[in-house]
Amino acid sequence: MIGNTATSWGALSRLLHWATAGVILFLLFLGAYMGLLVEDVLEQFRLVQIHKSWGFVAFTLALIRILWRQTHRTTPALPDSMTWIERAMAHLGHLGLYAMMIIMPVSGWLMASASPLQDRFGVKNKVFDLFEMYDPFVPGNEALSDIFAEVHFLSAWALTAIIIGHAGAALWHHFIRKDDVLKRMSYGRLPKA
Question: How far apart are CA 105 and CA 111, in angstroms?
Answer without folding.
Answer: 10
